[in-house]
Automatic annotation (TrEMBL):
Keywords per UniProt: Membrane, Transmembrane, Transmembrane helix
Parts of the chain that traverse the membrane: 12-31
Renumbered residue ranges of the record's region Disordered: 130-174
Name by which UniProt lists this protein: Cyclase dehydrase
Record's compositionally biased regions (Basic and acidic residues): 162-174
Keyword Transmembrane helix attributed: yes
Top-level taxonomic group: Bacteria
Amino acid sequence: MAYYRRNSSADRMARGLGWFSIGLGVAELVAGRRIARWMGMEEQAGLIRTYGAREVATGVGLLAMGDARPWMWGRVAGDALDLATLASAHHDGNPRRENVATALGAVAAVTALDVLCTAMLHREEATAWTPPRDYSDRSGLPRPPAAMRGAAKDAPIPADMRTPDILRFEPAEV
């Protein structure tokens, strides 16, 4: 079933998250090394840049496509990747562990928004049902049924619609 934007609160939220995605993605692409250093994850700078490209692509998808739901699921999946990457850096050996904890909290908060928006979009789709049209008052005939009775009785039958002679039933004479 096709889904079209109705400018609802869920659609506005999805567009806002799309812009957020683009902004975050550009920051990760441009300053991936600096972000990695801030979290004590210097060896992960390339991964952070890759995550930035994913964020930009998801943001563009949210803003450009009519159905935001698959792109929101992409954001939720990306959040899971981000959380797993950050969790792996949140250990006692990382001198920037507190910064990682801050990033984990921020990503968890955005994940909650992403899940909420996705649920709202799916709820809208479920409630967007419209009842089927009622054609019970229509007969399909060009005139009222009483005027149509017997109309075909006197109409000529085209040759290709007549019963072939060989198939015609003729009662036996007695």
